[in-house]
Design goal:
This protein is α/β, with parallel strands linked by helices. It has a domain of about 200 residues: Rossmann fold. It contains 13 helices and 18 strands.
Length: about 375
């Protein structure tokens, strides 16, 4: 595997985006910029060879300090996450009488490995585990990690016309491109990207008829996002899933919290070397760009395609309902400490939410047995 120096990645990707802006009247919407910054083949953040997932920004290998990851996800933090999620997956497979799992955005493959091992230990029949991931650079890493399940795991670049089974996505929706809407002195604009005099990317607003789904009280300037691509993804998935269920874990809010008047700076964030910043226009291709999820929008999108909501709750409540505490009791002290971060309110427990969808008849999912917040959507 070849690795381009960081400065080459950013310079090459910058040139591609500059050219895209030039042919589109000197301006592109932020959603297009975000898509190119994250997914341009070979250069976008999720499509290049840089290390992304892990617990530390730097690691020791053979006595040498090497570049580490940019952020840590729950399955990288502790295998108890995937093992606990597998309890819900197993129930969903049994209730829907299906034998396939579809994972979107599989990262390093850690979650897939945890779920596959846990399902095998439970004796849960599984005919196929399909990974849908736009990041070709991660496929080799996933294949190596999942080698012992090579007869079960397959990688696909696009969805078939129909599918069945249980769909999972951990921190997938937050990486889908968003449109930025800015209210400036009472007038709404779409905030996009242009090129400055020195060749740098700059913000530029254009008038728009687009609006947030809720009216924003007050006259103050306001910046937020709308999620047409994420909602379109949910509708497409709902249309293609003939039988089964889906579970998405991500950080975000219901609509009335997302568009609260006090949340006037939006939710777009960047992540690199375990540091966060709010400037997606700098160092393109070298850092993650995300936006919080509007879970109400996702729920409404699913209902437009005859898909129902199984439940919606905090990650903490979901994992506790699925038996995390019992697993922690049998784990090492180090594993218990790591697992606590999954459910502690000031860590991942409250900010991260889980939403579940179903096709067919509704049923009581283990993860939403207590603490269901569907009524808040």
């Amino acid at each position: 595997m070849s690795f381009l120096p960081a400065e080459n990645i950013s310079a090459s990707l910058t040139q591609i985006i500059v050219e895209a802006i030039a042919v589109q009247d000197g301006w592109i919407g932020f959603d297009q910029f975000m898509a190119q910054a994250l997914y341009t083949p070979g250069l976008g953040y999720y499509a290049n060879d840089s290390s992304k997932f892990g617990a530390l920004p730097y690691a020791r290998q053979a006595g040498v300090t090497v570049a580490g990851s940019d952020f840590v996800t729950a399955p990288e933090m502790t295998p108890l996450f995937g093992q606990t999620l597998a309890t819900q997956v197993a129930q969903a497979l049994q209730v829907t009488q299906t034998t396939e799992v579809w994972e979107f955005g599989a990262g390093s493959g850690a979650l897939a490995l945890q779920i596959l091992e846990a399902l095998a230990a439970q004796g849960q029949a599984l005919t196929r585990y399909s990974i849908v991931d736009l990041s070709g650079s991660l496929r080799a890493r996933q294949q190596a990690k999942l080698a012992k399940f090579s007869d079960t795991v397959q990688w696909v670049n696009e969805l078939p016309d129909t599918l069945q089974g249980v769909v999972i996505g951990n921190e997938v929706l937050d990486a889908m491109p968003v449109k930025l809407l800015a209210r400036v002195k009472g007038v709404w604009f779409e905030r996009g990207v242009a090129v400055g005099a020195a060749g740098e990317f700059i913000w530029q607003d254009r008038p728009t008829a687009l609006r947030p789904p809720l009216a924003i009280d007050g006259e103050h300037d306001y910046l937020s996002e709308i999620h047409p691509q994420g909602e379109s993804f949910i509708r497409t998935l709902a249309d293609k899933l003939s039988t089964g269920a889906a579970f998405f874990i991500d950080y975000g809010f219901p609509e009335h919290e997302y568009y609260h008047p006090q949340r006037h700076m939006g939710t777009v964030m960047c992540h690199r070397s375990h540091q966060s910043d709010t400037d997606p226009l700098a160092d393109v291709g070298l850092k993650d760009i995300t936006a919080h999820v509007n879970f109400t929008g996702m729920a409404l999108a699913c209902q437009m395609e005859d898909w129902g909501v199984l439940g919606y709750c905090t990650q903490a409540r979901f994992l506790i309902n699925c038996g995390l505490v019992a697993r922690m009791e049998n784990a090492t002290l180090q594993e218990r400490v790591r697992a606590q971060k999954l459910i502690m309110e000031h860590e991942m427990g409250e900010l991260f939410k889980v939403i579940g969808f179903y096709k067919g008849e509704p049923w009581q999912a283990l993860g939403f047995a207590e603490g269901d917040r569907t009524h808040t959507l």
